[in-house]
Amino acid sequence: MSVLRRYLARMKGGGRAPARPPRRDLLLAGTGGCLAIAAVAWLSLRAGVPALMAPLGASCFLAFAVPDSPLAQPRHIVGGHLVASAVGLAVLQVCGGAWWAQALAVGLAISAMLATRTGHPPAGADPLLVFALQPGWDFLLAPVLPGSLVVALVALAFNNLRPQAAYPKYW
Known about the structure:
The protein contains seven helices and no strands. It is an all-alpha fold. It starts with a helix and ends in a 12-residue tail after the last helix.
């Protein structure tokens, strides 16, 4: 039997997808994400400082859809984005914008986030954003720090409105 057939046979008899969450949870998760990005966008506009970046949308998924996950804790949201972006900036500065430098930056960012206990999957995209934009070190001060802080703070406020909520699980 070919490798593909064995894989498909396993998948066919494999587990089922998880049940759909209750409508209330769907609405709360979507509302939380909407409020967090709205807050980042509004504050960015008011302060005249760019604070929006695409990976924050993915951070919102974790923060509001699975707030009990270790990956959704404020330490991971803020720290992960800061660490991964700093790694991206350092690799860009040392190695230039080559394709292999982008790959190296993502790999080093993953290792650095794990080493600092700030693993946050959306932040894995930050080095690629750094290479696309080629910003200076002030990129850490805007948009990374304010954007990730606002998402974490909205998650702190919003997630604790839920019954039996206790967010964050740790700092």
